[in-house]
């Protein structure tokens, strides 16, 4: 079934149409990649879905109902979470403190003991290895990203947007991330994975390719090839010549 649908979404900035009549649908329990070159419009589309930007045209539907997502807080209330390329963390606070402070404005009212219990349950359930009492400044960046992901899970996100999540990860950390994201999908969460890396796209269920703000294709990933995706991304044949 469909978790989220975008119909005819257009978003312009001065001098540039960042998203041009974009159609996109996200199925329940899938990893759906947004793939495209730098500037293709991936972050703009996800920012519209997360309520950072108001589209100039088009609609966003959740469970087939049109919704107005006027702010990130609205998005959170609709069960959407987002992990940005740049983290919003306080290094001098612990993991637990960061999550409590970082989610307060969303209206979650758990005390520290309740928050700790809920987060323990989430970490144990997914096999996320993170010390809630560690100071964020002590953590490698790869682990800091888990604090951001935990914020979204703590707020009961059913749709999770990950913007270039492996940019800060080692290959080993990327594998752990994919394993845990797969567990989220198995529990009915839906993932929008923004990336420009082909190796990551190949691990997804479906991929929507954006080029210059437009959707050029939505494909079942197992039915496509890296060559085809590369060609769609740049709009012409690409030859990987081994010399
Ligand atoms: P991607 O995430 O695929 O790299 P973006 O969505 O960031 O692409 O950008 C799409 C286009 O919109 C680019 O041409 C970019 O320069 C432009 N753009 C993105 N955000 C803004 C903004 N806040 N103001 C003006 N132009 C923007
Ligand atoms: Mg960009
Ligand atoms: Mg981007």
From TrEMBL:
- What keywords would UniProt list here? ATP-binding, Nucleotide-binding, Sugar transport, Transport
Q: Which residues form the ABC transporter domain?
A: 4-237
Write out the GO MF terms.
Answer: ATP binding; ATP hydrolysis activity
Recorded superkingdom: Bacteria
To which protein family does this belong?
A: Belongs to the ABC transporter superfamily.
Indicate what this protein is called per its UniProt record: ATPase component of uncharacterized ABC-type transporter
Q: Which section of the whole protein is represented?
A: 2 to 244 of 511
